[in-house]
Amino acid sequence: MPQSEYLTGTRFSSTGLAIVRLMTHAAVGLLIRRRRGLARRSQMDLAHEIGISPRHLSFVELGKSKPSAGLLLTIARHLDVPLRERNDWLLAAGYAPRYPETSLTEPALVRVRRSLQLLLDAHDPFPAAVIDRTWSVQLTNQAARQLVSDIPADVRGVPTNIFRTALHPAGLAPRTRNFAQWSAYLLWQLDRAVARSQDPTLATLAHEIATWPAIPERQAWGHLSAEEGDDPVVPWRLEAGGQELSLITTMSTFGTPMDVTLSELSIELFFPADEATENALRRHAHTGSW
After folding, report:
1. Of the chain's two ends, which shows fewer C-beta atoms within 10 Å, N or C?
2. Hydrolase: is it a keyword of this entry (predicted)?
């Protein structure tokens, strides 16, 4: 009787196992080639950068050579592959995932969650939020909640999504005085997020947003630019309580995340772009009125 083994609950002959291994090698090779194409890197350039021969990299991409886990992670690092996708590469090559994915509500991240909330609360009376890879809000402060308090949940999404809230015709879009400029910034970010994450939920949202009024064709998003006007930083000009607020935004991430959840979080802090906006936000926080 030929030698046989069990793999994921299915019995394979030695010939069958060889085919499975070849398919596994090919699968991870395709993932590497697709990501290299998105990064617009040549085989020769990438191979020389990571210290292997172009022939070796070619064999890996064609499924003729099985890469070690270390080589996979080196390639992923040089292509700036997200941790979630690095786990996918490892699984496709037959290795165990390297990076855990921990919910912000789990005990292991309680201290991180508490620190993030302290940062957001300290930023009051200016809006701030922690968002994930789909730009859905995971944590927020009082000022941010007040800005969207009158927008229905079915418009914002559950959890609240920045793209939906800012671009939906029943969201903040009608209140955004410089919508063409601000939407160009957001749509360019959304286009990048879809390409980087390859997340089907985010891709579906992008297709939905493309059908909304005043939104350019989907193919144009990657070429949009918000660089108009004389402002040193692109502002978000938002009507609130009959007056215009002018806000600028900063984004920050964890420097050395080793957890998928933390690697996908960004902290967005809004600051007043002028004195009138600062006074209005402070007054609203104190009195509840604009």
Report:
1. N
2. no
Residue 171 lies in a domain: yes
Task: Fill in the DSSP letter of residue 66.
Answer: P
Among 44, 46, 24, 25, residue whose Cα is nearest residue 35 = 46
Parallel, antiparallel, or unpaired: how do β-strands 128-131 and 266-272 relate? Answer: antiparallel
Q: Is 176 helix (H, G, I), strand (E, B) or coil?
A: strand
Q: Is the same domain home to 77 and 21?
A: yes
- Burial class of residue 38, CB neighbours in 10 A (0-12, 13-18, 19+): middle
Which of 31, 61, 92 is where one domain is finished? 92
Task: Give the three-class secondary structure for 259.
Answer: coil
CB 111 within 8 A of CB 102: no
Task: Please check whether residues 123 and 221 belong to one and the same domain.
Answer: yes
**Are 141 and 124 contacting, i.e. CB atoms less than 8 angstroms apart?**
yes
| pLDDT tens digits, 128-185 | 999 999 999 999 999 999 999 999 999 999 999 999 999 999 999 999 999 999 999 9
d(CA 99, CA 278): 41
Sheet holding 266-272, edge to edge: 137-140, 128-131, 266-272, 243-253, 236-240
Q: Do 71 and 33 sit in the same domain of this protein?
A: yes
